């Protein structure tokens, strides 16, 4: 009886020791873990920002130069009495109603604005 009690006590102590070491090993945190998590979140942020930037680059806006070329094309076709497409007719009506004033930016200004916006987005991940 006494030997079985000692054996059970030893066995329970060994099991308790194994369980506590397993639990503490699972919860142990190293200094490199925090660095890895921080770097991982930066990388994740950078990849999301690059995706946003790629989508912003795909969006095209009409530049001042393109609008000037379109205006010149419409006026030339009108002078030569060539038929205008429906879009050109609508553009001509808009020109006659509002005038030649344009609030469009030149391509150089658009690139500068986008570069500043992209830089700002990238700086958020530092």
Q: Compute the gyration radius: what is it?
A: 35 Å
Determine the N-to-C terminus distance. Answer: 68 Å
Oligomer: single chain
Unreliable stretches, pLDDT < 50, 5 or more residues?
A: none
Q: What share of the residues lie within helices?
A: over 70%
- Major sheet characteristics: none
Order of helices and strands: HHHHH
Number of helices: 5
Topology:
Layout: H1 2-27, H2 31-58, H3 64-79, H4 86-98, H5 107-123
Helix pairs in contact: 2-5, 3-4
Structure description:
This protein is mainly α and 126 residues long. The protein has five helices and no strands.
Keywords:
single chain; 126 residues; mainly alpha; 79% helix; rod-shaped
Sum this structure up briefly.
It contains five helices and no strands. It has 126 residues and is mostly helical.
């Amino acid at each position: 009886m006494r030997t079985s009690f000692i054996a059970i006590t030893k066995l329970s102590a060994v099991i308790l020791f194994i369980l506590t070491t397993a639990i503490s090993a699972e919860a142990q945190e190293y200094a490199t873990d925090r660095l890895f998590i921080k770097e991982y979140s930066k990388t994740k942020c950078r990849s999301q920002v690059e995706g946003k930037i790629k989508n912003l680059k795909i969006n095209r806006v009409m530049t001042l130069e393109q609008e000037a070329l379109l205006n010149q094309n419409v006026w030339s076709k009108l002078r030569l009495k060539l038929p205008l497409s429906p879009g050109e007719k609508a553009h001509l009506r808009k020109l006659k109603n509002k005038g030649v004033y344009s609030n469009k930016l030149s391509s150089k200004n658009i690139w500068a604005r986008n570069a500043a916006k992209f830089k700002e987005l990238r700086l958020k991940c530092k």
